[in-house]
Write a structure and sequence with these properties.
Strand order of the largest sheet: 1-2
Largest sheet: 2 strands, antiparallel
Number of domains: 2
Distance between the termini: 62 Å
Structural class: mainly alpha
CATH topology of the largest domain: MetI-like fold
Helix content: over 70%
Number of helices: 14
CATH architecture of the largest domain: Orthogonal Bundle
Strand content: under 5%
Order of helices and strands: HHHHHHHHHHHHEEHH
């Protein structure tokens, strides 16, 4: 038994060391852009040997913990590489004059001061909050009504559920161009025939904003509807039967039983709608590209009347080539979204307890 443990320990340590050497060598040659074309294979084989060594490590006390780490590592590594590390680097870049390639110097809070001196950026924040406000109400209202329809006893429920969810499967860029055609070429034919209005609603800032709201509701309500359907299906049938026996009408059952019992579902749907609306980018880009005139805002004439916060950050960094300023705006965007999300969840949880 001792010999077996010693042999297993030797294999484990050997696999750990060889795997670690292969990964370091492969990563080093990849960074230095030297060596052969087998760098990817070296890193992969090294990772397999490293985790095999961890798995074979001869200890009973920590073996389950080691196995859990092995299975969690790919997810944690991907999350760190795609979220945590870019977030930390972005915060650091926001205090420099980074041009997307190199850092020339440290500028402190200059980027944050500059962005608050831009009327177009302040307008983007205001219009984003307005967009979020309307969509939290309208998307959840439409989705809840569709969920009530799709849990009723009408025929063809499968068709209706699929039809209402289908717009969510269309990419935002494609969706934006489709609705741009509808607003500019289809709806104008009806408005010119009945109301003598020949211009597209996307040509005016106020109506273009309404158009973006309509497209977002059309795209996202079907997804939220499925969550409400799941919540409605979890309401016990005996509770609904008891309310019916007691003489409760449809409206009383809805407001006194179904909605209170859907409080956790409403919290989830509100959170998803809020975060998605704040991050609206693709439909905004494809539908109006942020254009639209605002005659007098903070004493300035603006041409980004429909440009929301995510699109403003993209335009600053990619279009105007001001990456450090764009990072500062992105950091502020992250702080706003985190604060609003936390406040919304806390309020919703409090409402759940009251219900």
């Amino acid at each position: 038994m001792g010999e077996f443990t010693a042999g297993r320990k030797a294999v484990s340590f050997g696999s750990l060391i060889i795997g670690l050497i292969l990964m370091i060598y492969g990563l080093g040659t990849a960074i230095a852009k030297t060596g052969n074309n087998l760098r990817g294979a070296e890193i992969l084989i090294g990772a397999v040997l490293f985790f095999a060594g961890l798995y074979l490590f001869p200890t009973l006390k920590y073996h389950r913990t080691i196995v859990n780490i092995i299975f969690l590592f790919p997810l944690l590594f991907a999350f760190a590489v795609t979220v945590i590390i870019p977030l930390v680097l972005g915060i650091g870049y926001s205090f420099t004059d980074w041009d997307g390639i190199r850092i020339k110097g440290f500028v402190g809070f200059d980027n944050y001061i500059r962005m608050f001196k831009q009327p177009g950026f302040i307008w983007s924040i205001l219009i984003t909050f307005l967009f979020v406000f309307f969509n939290i109400i309208l998307v959840n209202l439409v989705a809840f009504l569709l969920a009530l329809l799709c849990t009723s006893r009408i025929k063809g429920l499968g068709f209706f559920r699929a039809a209402y969810f289908l717009p969510n499967l269309i990419g935002g860029i494609v969706l934006g161009y489709i609705w741009q055609f509808i607003f500019s070429s289809v709806i104008t034919k009806f408005t010119s025939a009945f109301w003598d209005m020949r211009y597209s609603m996307l040509s005016d800032t106020k109506t273009a904003f309404v158009g973006i709201v309509i497209v977002y509701i059309w795209q996202y309500a079907g997804y939220i509807m499925l969550i409400y359907i799941t919540g409605l299906n979890t309401i016990p049938e005996d509770v609904l039967e008891a309310s019916s026996i007691d003489g409760a009408g449809a409206a009383q059952t809805l407001f006194n039983i179904k909605i209170p019992m859907l409080a956790p579902t409403i919290t989830i749907c509100t959170f998803l709608t809020l975060t998605s609306a704040f991050k609206q980018f693709d439909v905004n880009l494809a539908l109006t590209n942020g254009t639209g005139s605002v005659a007098d805002f903070m004493g300035n004439y603006l041409t980004n009347g429909t440009e929301m916060l995510a699109l403003n950050i993209y335009s600053t960094a990619v279009i105007n080539n001001e990456y450090a300023l764009g990072e500062a705006k992105a950091v502020l965007f992250f702080i706003i979204l985190a604060i609003v999300s936390i406040v919304q969840v806390r309020i919703s949880n409090k409402r759940e307890v009251e219900m």
